[in-house]
């Protein structure tokens, strides 16, 4: 294109270019191109794609790795937009340990063969014939189908979960924990791991039964008694051999599984061929094998439930014994970490194994019911070739029979064409299933331990070798299996495992239902053949089957699940797996806020929702504690932070992260909101307007008192004053807290470091974080003993408590005292607590400073809260002190109410009226004090004190310094115009000093100034007059909307 443009003359093509540019945003004047820089004569040089991209990054799997923050290479917004350059590696981050990849399985060897071997296990060879004898052919098929329905639904649910992202080691535990969260995941992880460990014992005991019977039948050999003790001995030896095989490594275990698979297929074919050939002689006939016979089919078609092992059998007790045969569907998923592609292998291999084995179980149940009698004596003398089947059945009516479907567990060996080959198949099935469980249980233990959900279990998660084999977990599984082998009763072990597996299946289905019900954006499984309602049905069937099989065992299993659930919930492990429960919390909160927004407000449902201006919360802990007294377990609390300077994204993120972690570490349930590049009053307005959602937004602004206002610039005073007015103009209640020691501990307290918290949590694993403890005052007098002595003086001086530090003397608090007086601080004994504040050098702060910081966590004994309810602001001045007394730390505090009355009014009438009003509000008070001499002129001493306070600020109206914004100014005309109000505040100060110097907290209605009439410095003088040299002081002004009512 550039070459064609160069060949054209500028004059001849001007019109055409103008015509072509009509549709563009800019008009192209070719005639002026020669006068400016242009690209007509430029030639694009051949460059590499990397140079072309500059700092941009092409989509790559590495950029979406879970550990992207440490190994990713995607450019950040700051790099692209601001030109900043960051190192790819964080110098403080720990290097990732690269574990070399071990042997991985495909879907056939890793899932299909494992599931087939585990499902074709001990139940097929030793209990299927007994199931047919008890339940009959029809109900035996129903038992198989019911188990198939549960397993198919579970497999569909599991397939959906396993195809929704990368599956790591841990199998079922991993899927449930990453879907439902660590609570359910941890609970079922323990249960399922124990179930697999008991599964080792189940299949080993099955092997021992078959081996014992073979030794007795062919060699007439017994080890001890030919009974349970023989099983215990053989089982213990077998367990050691199995443990040695799996300890060598997964590759040897996989080779053994292939060998077992070949033997098993031959044994199953041997059984089918034997059923077709029929009995080989009268010996087999006497044991119940008569071949295919319609009369046997009709007889065995109906159930015949009998007493077995002292228990009357029923459909569900037989189902409980059979169901472990269906538990093999998780054999492939349990080693998900050793599969090449778990998302593809698990659905394909599991479903194919279920359909294959279900068909085979139904086929073998029909064969057993169609060829073998329920009872037979085993004595050839009782059986002849010309007798009928009915004659054979009549024989056992009068005597005990040891053979047949009901009495012998070796029916498959009897039916097989070559009996020893069936024993070989039984050995292969039981040992392969035991091996599969021996591999699964430690893998689940390892995944559970590595997640560190439970304390003290991480030692079992250590891996060894290139495959990270969990040898310690193998030892744990060995111990559990050995304990179960000593039981030596297959029918006793099976129901225990059934309940554990059913609980696991139920939670797999619940996981799929739950995540599909809330449908997070990240829920995108590639397996589409599932339905959430089908998963819910699977969950219901699993739970129902648990209780129908054995309700006592189901109760124990459920109790264990919920016990582990609440343990994990109480521990609150520091994990974030993006579970569906997080989505549920979000959607429930969203729905609740939306619903709440449609409900009209009512006085009875009013709750104080506080925006407390803390800055960095860790530097104003006492202000945070005070606000939390009103909001704890009750309402919304937001810590506001306003910065005049613009912050970069990194700076904002670090500040927000630090504040949120500090709140979390101190067990303060509050939000944190940061605004930068904005003035203080505008920031207050922005926070009040934009913070919150719907009606979940602040209705109270809590400020710390500006204790250094007298040394501040006039503009800073005006900003503080404007912030108060901004909130009032928005009809938001305003509260101001003052303590004489101050609220800002910047430079005194050590800064909070998130990394130190993380390291401390690792060192103290299993312990809780710093909480919001209660400090108790161990003394006879009230807490006011630590407060200074409050007196009046003709001059106003400021004394500071200081703390020594390397940077010099740091001011802790300002106290307005007379020049000759000191304020000795009495030490108090404070109970030992986990919260211990330190200075920037890491040293413990003096006890006086510690007490000052923790004053609102202290247990207040025999304390008093003085409420000066001067003006009706809607009742907030009365409600907040009442909420305070409902907290455990202030439960022993008494409310004393002060109110105003005209001098000519009857004091008793006013007092009785106020008491009646408070009774209707259901607010208990210890006393009501009526102030009748409010209109008296303040004393000369008080006037002198106020003049000393304002002498540096008062200027004549025409003073040139009035224009200097750095100097606080009160014009004479303003001071004289507001003389009446100023005298009122002086008089209130005298009354406060008279009545409330011994109170633990003073609450007073905040004075309001008419906008544009009173300046910021004068208003601060008024507040100083009320609060100077007083106990903790809270000024409150509601928005003049009722928050109290005496109607029910």
From TrEMBL:
Cite the Pfam families for this sequence: AA_permease, SLC12
Keywords, alphabetical? Membrane, Transmembrane, Transmembrane helix
Q: Which domain of life is it from?
A: Eukaryota
Among InterPro entries, the record links this protein to:
AA-permease/SLC12A_dom, SLC12_C, SLC12A_fam
Topology relative to the lipid bilayer, per the entry, is: Multi-pass membrane protein
Q: Where is the protein found, in the record's own terms?
A: Membrane
Q: Which residues cross the membrane?
A: 111-130, 136-163, 184-205, 231-250, 257-277, 315-337, 349-373, 421-441, 471-490, 536-567
Domain SLC12A transporter C-terminal, by residue range, is 620-1048
Recorded GO cellular component terms are: membrane
Source organism of the structure: Daphnia galeata
Which part of the chain is the Amino acid permease/ SLC12A domain? Answer: 110-611
- GO BP: cell volume homeostasis; chloride ion homeostasis; potassium ion homeostasis; potassium ion import across plasma membrane; sodium ion homeostasis
NCBIfam families reported in the protein's UniProt record: 2a30
Indicate where this protein is primarily found.
membrane
Protein's recorded name: Bumetanide-sensitive na-k-cl cotransport protein
Q: Which GO terms describe its molecular function?
A: sodium:potassium:chloride symporter activity
């Amino acid at each position: 294109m550039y070459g064609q443009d160069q060949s054209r003359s500028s004059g001849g093509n001007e019109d055409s270019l103008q015509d072509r540019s009509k549709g563009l945003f800019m008009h192209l004047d070719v005639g002026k191109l020669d006068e400016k820089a242009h690209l007509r004569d430029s030639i694009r040089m051949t460059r590499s794609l990397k140079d072309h991209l500059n700092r941009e990054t092409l989509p790559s799997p590495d950029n979406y790795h879970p550990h992207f923050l440490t190994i990713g290479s995607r450019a950040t917004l700051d790099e692209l937009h601001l030109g900043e350059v960051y190192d790819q590696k964080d110098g403080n981050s720990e290097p990732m340990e690269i574990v070399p990849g071990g042997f991985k399985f495909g879907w056939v060897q890793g899932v299909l063969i494992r599931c087939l071997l585990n499902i074709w296990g001990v139940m097929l060879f030793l209990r299927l014939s007994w199931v047919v004898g008890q339940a009959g052919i029809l109900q035996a098929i129903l038992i198989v189908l019911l188990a198939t329905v549960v397993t198919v639904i579970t497999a569909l649910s599991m397939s959906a979960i396993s195809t929704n992202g990368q599956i790591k080691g841990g199998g079922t535990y991993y899927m449930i924990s990453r879907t439902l969260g660590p609570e359910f995941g941890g609970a079922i992880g323990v249960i399922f791991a124990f179930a697999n460990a008991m599964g080792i014992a189940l299949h080993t005991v099955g092997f021992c039964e078959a081996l014992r019977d073979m030794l007795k039948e062919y060699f007439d050999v017994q080890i001890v008694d030919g009974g349970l003790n023989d099983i215990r001995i053989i089982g213990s030896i077998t367990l050691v051999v199995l443990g040695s095989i799996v300890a060598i490594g997964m590759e040897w275990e996989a080779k053994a599984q292939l060998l077992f698979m070949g033997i098993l297929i031959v044994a199953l074919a041997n059984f089918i061929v034997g059923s077709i050939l029929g009995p080989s002689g009268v010996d087999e006939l006497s044991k119940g094998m008569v071949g295919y016979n319609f009369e046997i089919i009709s007889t065995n078609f109906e159930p015949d439930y009998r007493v077995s092992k002292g228990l009357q059998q029923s459909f569900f007790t037989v189902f409980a014994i059979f169901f472990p045969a269906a538990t093999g569907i998780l054999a492939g998923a349990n080693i998900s970490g050793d599969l090449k592609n778990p998302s593809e292998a698990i659905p394909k291999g599991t479903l194919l194994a279920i359909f294959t084995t279900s068909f085979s179980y139904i086929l073998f149940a029909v064969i057993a019911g169609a060829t073998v009698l329920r009872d037979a004596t085993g004595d050839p003398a009782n059986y002849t070739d010309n007798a009928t089947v009915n004659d054979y059945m009549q024989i056992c009516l009068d005597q005990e029979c040891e053979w047949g479907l009901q009495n012998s567990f070796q029916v498959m060996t009897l039916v097989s064409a070559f009996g020893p080959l069936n024993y070989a198949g039984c050995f292969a099935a039981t040992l392969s299933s035991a091996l599969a469980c021996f591999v699964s249980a430690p893998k689940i233990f390892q995944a559970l331990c590595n997640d560190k959900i439970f304390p003290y279990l991480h030692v079992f998660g250590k891996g060894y070798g290139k495959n990270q084999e969990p040898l310690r977990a193998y030892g744990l599984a060995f111990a559990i299996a050995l304990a179960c082998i000593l039981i030596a009763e297959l029918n006793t072990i099976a129901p225990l495992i059934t309940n554990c597996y059913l609980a696991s299946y139920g939670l797999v289905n619940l996981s799929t239902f739950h995540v599909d019900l809330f449908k997070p954006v990240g829920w995108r499984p590639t397996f589409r053949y599932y339905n959430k309602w089908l998963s819910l049905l699977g969950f219901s069937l699993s739970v129902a089957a648990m209780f129908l099989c054995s309700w006592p065992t189901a109760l124990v299993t459920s109790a264990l699940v919920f016990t582990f659930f609440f343990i994990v919930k109480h521990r609150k492990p520091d994990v974030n797996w993006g579970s569906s429960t997080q989505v549920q919390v979000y959607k429930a909160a969203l729905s609740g806020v939306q619903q709440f927004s449609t409900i009209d407000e009512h006085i009875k449902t009013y709750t104080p929702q506080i925006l407390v201006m803390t800055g960095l919360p860790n530097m104003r802990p006492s202000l945070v504690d005070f606000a939390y007294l009103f909001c704890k377990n009750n309402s919304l609390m937001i810590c506001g932070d306003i910065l005049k300077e613009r912050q970069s994204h990194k700076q904002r993120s670090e500040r927000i992260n630090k504040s949120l972690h500090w709140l979390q570490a101190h067990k303060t349930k509050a939000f944190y909101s940061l605004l930068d590049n904005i003035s203080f009053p505008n920031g207050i307005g922005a926070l009040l307007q934009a913070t919150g959602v719907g009606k979940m937004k602040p209705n109270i602004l809590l400020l710390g008192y500006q204790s250094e206002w007298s040394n501040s610039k006039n503009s800073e005073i005006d900003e503080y004053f404007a912030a108060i007015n901004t909130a009032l103009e928005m009809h938001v209640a305003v509260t101001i807290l003052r303590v004489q020691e101050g609220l800002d501990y910047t430079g005194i307290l050590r800064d909070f470091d998130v990394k130190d918290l993380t390291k401390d949590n690792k060192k103290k694993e299993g312990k809780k974080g710093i909480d919001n403890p209660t400090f108790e005052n161990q003394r006879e007098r009230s807490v006011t003993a630590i407060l200074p002595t409050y007196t009046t003086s003709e001059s106003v001086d400021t004394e500071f408590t200081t703390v020594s530090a390397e940077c010099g003397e740091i001011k802790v608090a300002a106290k307005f005292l007379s020049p000759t007086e000191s304020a000795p601080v009495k030490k108090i004994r404070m109970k030992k607590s986990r919260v211990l504040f330190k200075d920037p050098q890491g040293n413990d702060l003096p006890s006086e400073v510690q007490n000052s910081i923790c004053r609102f966590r202290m247990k207040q004994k025999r304390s008093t809260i003085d409420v000066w309810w001067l003006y009706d602001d809607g009742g907030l001045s009365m409600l907040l002190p009442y909420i305070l007394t409902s907290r455990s730390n202030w439960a022993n505090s008494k409310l004393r109410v002060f109110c105003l009355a005209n001098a000519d009014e009857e004091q008793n009438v006013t007092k009785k009226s106020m008491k009646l009003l408070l009774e209707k509000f259901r607010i208990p008070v210890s006393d009501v004090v009526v102030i009748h001499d409010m209109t008296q002129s303040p004393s000369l001493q008080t006037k002198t004190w106020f003049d000393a306070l304002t002498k540096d600020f008062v200027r004549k109206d025409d003073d040139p310094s009035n224009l200097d914004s750095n100097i606080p100014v009160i014009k004479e005309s303003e001071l004289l115009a507001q003389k009446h109000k100023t005298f009122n505040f002086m008089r209130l100060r005298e009354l406060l000093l008279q009545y409330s110097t011994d109170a633990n907290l003073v609450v007073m209605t905040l004075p309001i100034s008419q906008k544009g009439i009173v300046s910021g410095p004068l208003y601060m003088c008024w507040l100083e007059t009320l609060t100077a040299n007083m106990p903790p002081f809270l000024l409150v002004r509601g928005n003049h909307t009722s928050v109290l009512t005496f109607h029910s």
